[in-house]
Amino acid sequence: MLLKDLVPKQAKVRNKKQLLRFVHYLLGREGLINIDYADFNTVFSRASQIYYGYGYAWSKKIKEGKGRRAGRSALRRLVPKNKFRSVILNISGGSDLALHEVSEAAEQIYSCCGRRANIIFGAVIDKKLKGKIRVDVVGVW
Fold this sequence. Notes:
Blueprint: E1 12-13, H1 16-27, H2 37-44, E2 49-58, H3 59-63, H4 68-75, E3 84-93, H5 99-110, E4 113-125, E5 132-140
Parallel strand pairs: 1-2, 3-4
Antiparallel strand pairs: 2-5, 3-5
Helix pairs in contact: 4-5
């Protein structure tokens, strides 16, 4: 199956070409917990609408309790609360990434999902992101 065949024809997407670049970016990252083609295939198989985005937060702000910004900015203009059926969540950070930073960003995403949403999680250590984290989200209605 080709990457372009991953997104169902009936799914509404803001920009299909940009979504495929975003998916390619996530698939090409080697990490602690990898997101693979099968994860996207599972999530996209029953998609009627697909939303995607990313956000950044700086470790210093997270330590001060202001880390929810990354999760919020990744979902800022997506869908109302409790609407996602499936979510792929990838959190990237430098070698200084702490578990509580990952947890805080993941909680923000979880709050935007329904109770029975399927959440697939990935984590990547990226040396270029020293002192900050990047939260990538693909949500499916």
